[in-house]
Design a protein that fits this description.
about 350 residues, 15 helices, 2 domains, globular, eight-stranded mixed sheet, D-Maltodextrin-Binding Protein, domain 2, alpha/beta
């Protein structure tokens, strides 16, 4: 008579089969995921992005208004997770959208993006398009945000030197009440930090002053903005301005510093592994279209790419696409930069 397997072994075998069916475990961490089903979903596109769902959802719906048969799977990851997932081949989206311009440039430079050309992409200036593989579609400044109650009887800083003097003169007000990106873990924070060093040595003096006041380090702009709004923080430095604009500003003052304000451009690329590259190109065209730009301008935090902005606002400095963005991705330069930054900002 054949003996039956113990129940524990049967359960174990079933779990093993289910695990194999599900495929290998995912090595990257998803923050949010939403499926935008089309009425007649005959086609589907997967977008992996660093933009919060609340910020990008109107653009997805606007795209679907023009392409009603296309369903969209929208997945949100951190810039570092997104880069690593594409680099390692652990993800195969049709379109990659990220705020980390340097990491996007490296993906394209290392052969992970395929070219795309259209009438819309051809109109982009050279500094907003790279090798017909990487395309900018927003302008988003790195800003200083202030708690209005905390600054009720203090002067509003106009430059980084103003900010340094304000912090030095009022240490009791600002100790443990300053926020900024953790450059070790935030791709966007690292981009803003390295761009700061290109603009002025003031960045290092400011980092030392902030470090002496036990500055708190964050992964994301959203949490910094929330903590400034609640009064937990008095100010936050190098916050993504588009996120601040998109939220209630009743307790928050947004400052574009007059010495210079770095402007990030959110970019899109079509990876080589894309299954629906043509639809991905259609989405890029929508982002650059009159309708897409109008939606960005009217309803969403990120502003559309507009070259006239830089002629009217002299303090705005665009972070240009190109091989210059690869300099601080060199491992030795990155390690050296982060050591110097950590020494300044993390003090006993």
């Amino acid at each position: 008579m054949r003996q039956s397997l113990p129940a524990t072994k049967i359960v174990g075998a079933i779990l093993a089969i289910l695990a194999l069916a599900a495929g290998p475990p995912r090595a990257f961490e998803i923050e949010t995921e939403q499926y935008f089903a089309a009425v007649d979903g005959s086609s589907e596109i997967t977008i992996m992005s660093t933009a919060d769902l609340s910020v990008f959802a109107p653009l997805v719906r606007g795209f679907q208004n023009r392409n009603p048969r296309v369903s969209v799977r929208y997945v949100v990851l951190s810039s570092a997770e997104l880069y690593s997932a594409v680099l390692a081949g652990e993800a195969a989206p049709d379109l990659v959208i990220s705020s980390a311009m340097d990491l996007q440039t490296k993906l394209a430079n290392d052969g992970f993006a395929q070219p795309f050309r259209s009438q819309a992409t051809e109109t982009l200036p050279a500094w907003a398009r790279w090798r017909d593989e990487l395309f900018a579609f927003t302008l988003e400044p790195a800003v200083l945000i202030l708690s209005k109650p905390a600054f009720a009887d203090l002067p509003r800083p106009k430059t980084r030197q103003d900010l340094i003097e304000l912090l030095r003169d009022n240490p009791e007000r600002f100790k443990n009440r300053i926020g900024t990106y953790d450059l070790r873990t935030s791709g966007l924070g690292y981009l803003f930090g390295t761009q700061d060093t290109r603009q002025s040595e003031t960045f290092w003096r400011l980092s030392e002053v902030m470090g002496a006041l036990q500055t708190r380090l964050y992964c994301c702009s959203g949490q910094m903005i929330e903590d400034v709004r609640s009064g937990e923080l008095a100010l936050a430095y190098n916050v993504l301005g588009s996120y601040a604009d998109a939220q209630d500003e009743s307790n928050v003052d947004i400052v574009l510093l007059e010495d210079y304000t770095s402007v990030m451009m959110r970019t899109a690329l079509i990876p080589n592994s894309a299954k629906n590259a043509q639809l991905a190109g259609t989405f890029i065209n929508y982002l650059l279209s009159t309708d897409g730009r109008a939606l960005l301008r009217a309803e969403i935090g990120p502003g559309p790419l507009d070259t006239d902005t830089f002629s009217s606002e002299q303090n705005l400095r665009p972070i240009r696409l190109g091989p210059g963005l690869l300099v601080y991705l060199d491992q030795l330069k990155r390690q050296s930069f982060l050591r110097a930054w950590a020494s300044a900002i993390i003090q006993p």
